[in-house]
Amino acid sequence: MCRSIFRASLVRALTALVTPIICLIIAAPLPGAELSRPVPQPPPYLWSSSPVSQTAELLTLSRHSCVQVKTGSADVPLIAVLRDTLGDRSSGNDRVLYLWLLTASRNGPTDHILSAVPFFYWRIGNGSRSGGTPSPLLNLNTPLHPVLSGASRKLLQWAAFDPLTTAVRASSRSYQANALDGERIKLEQAITYLQSAPPETDGVGLTNEERNTAVARLVLQKTLLGGLLNDRSTSHFGQQASLEGERIRSHNFETLRQLAEKTGTYFEPLTLAGTSGEFAILWFPLSTKEPQTGSNSNSLYKLLNLRNPWSDPQLKHWGGPLYGRWLDANGSLLPAGALGNKPVTLIPLAVYSLDYSRMPLLLADFRDKQHVRRHEMLQRSITEITGGVIGISYFANWYYYAGAILYDTVWARRGTASNQAERLDCYARFRTRLSLDNQLDPALHSALS
Q1: Whole-angstrom distance between the N-terminal and C-terminal Cα of the chain?
Q2: Disulfide engineering: 291 pairs with which of 163, 230, 264, 279, CB 3.0-4.6 Å?
């Protein structure tokens, strides 16, 4: 017995002595091999500065691309800002003058003609990028100009075009609505870029106050009387709008997470172009039974704006992409690439925007690609029939619009996204993020596009 105890002690001592030596041999690099060091990744967004005369500079915000070309990495320029420095090094007296959206394209003659055709809801192209220097999207020297131009357009429509025939009234209203939507999309793209811009580094880039002012001016340009605010009130408005946006996203995040938990689906935040917290995706698990919540599930799916996936025969014969993921010990979905306790096969159900003011907004339905499109076409058709065909106006038929506002308010409290302009902002923001993203799964990216 003493011999066995002695042998066991000797084995333990030799093991403790040999194990560190073996680990050092395994960890040592091979002859001629170099230790791999992490390659520093460039920031996703970066500012560059170019002098203009002696008292100004042109700041360009670019998105770093992973595409390599012969001359190096290809960066995508997004916006350009002209800032007057007054020829000194002090940043306290700098002033932003103009802002250009470099990703915007011009509409050709065919685009203008078809935009005046009522009930034409099809996209006909991406526009033309030729035509010289682009016009500034924002002129901070004349904030009243959009107010005067917007008021004059509405007055011209009401006084000159509405009393004419139905064809003139419908086509002019359709053209004006498409023009306003196109301008709103460009404004939302510029807002998205500025909110993703890094802070000023070594004097290159916009300061937080300048960025808040520019974002606030872009937001106020969407409203009729937004240009009446002075610069001090505009900066305060930009800060408040940023805080309100964070509150809305946090509320919608928790709402969508709870709805996914009650319906037995999986909720996952969606990261696009290096930005998270703005969008989320719902996954449907295969080979899983529907949870018994004890409540009416129809109201839950009405808030989600989806059909019940557990009773949908389409998912039993799903021909789209499938994704394999893992669950942790609590049954929660782990990030892509992480290993857990239980594998699960998922089908993408829908993608939501968390920026809508009252509720998560459905952006894409993977089972019915025309779901969102039909809803938008219906809402647009009602607007064109009442305003363009019948000729109902805000001045002569104010009672109709009062009832319409009351109707939208009631249905909005019941979970209907009735604000068309705000929905358009969410669509534009999602399209902008998706166009700059290069990390999403290619099949999922193609389906969302």
Answers
A1: 75
A2: 264
Q: Report pLDDT digits (tens) over 236-267.
A: 787 788 888 899 999 999 999 999 999 989 99
Contact call for residues 354 and 279 (beta carbons, < 8 A): yes
User: Rounded to whole angstroms, how far apart are CA atoms 74 and 66?
Assistant: 7
Q: How far apart are CA 29 and CA 44, in angstroms?
A: 33
Q: How far apart are CA 181 and CA 189, in angstroms?
A: 12
DSSP string, 359-428: SPEEEEESS-TTHHHHHHHHHHHHHHIIIIIS---TTTTHHHHHHHHHHHHHHHHTT----HHHHHHHHH
pLDDT for 28 beyond 50: no
β-pair partners for 327? 333, 342
Which amino acid is it at 290? Answer: E
Q: What is the pLDDT of residue 270?
A: 92
**Other CB atoms within 10 A of residue 119 CB:** 13
Radius of gyration of the chain (CA): 28
Token pair, residue 202, equals: 């070594």
Q: Decide: residue 397, CB within 10 A, 0-12 exposed, 13-18 middle, 19+ buried.
A: middle
Among candidates 363, 354, 351, 352, which has minimal Cα distance to 250?
354
Number of H helices, E strands in the chain: 12, 10
* Selection from 145, 114, 107 nearest residue 128 by Cα: 107
Alpha-carbon distance of 228 to 146, in angstroms, equals: 10
**In which region does residue 291 sit, left (phi positive, over 0), alpha (psi from -120 to 50) or beta (all else)?**
beta
Residue among 124, 47, 54 at smallest CA distance from 81:
47
Share of the chain above pLDDT 70, in %: 84
Q: How does DSSP classify residue 201?
A: B
pLDDT higher than 90, residue 350: yes
pLDDT at 447: 84
Q: What is the pTM of this model?
A: 0.83
Instruction: Please state, in angstroms and as integers, the Cα–Cα distance from residue 99 to each residue in 24, 106, 191, 269, 418, following that order.
Output: 59, 16, 11, 32, 31
Q: How far is residue 217's CA from residue 424's CA, in Å, rounded to a whole number?
A: 18
DSSP run (H or E) holding 325:
strand 323-327
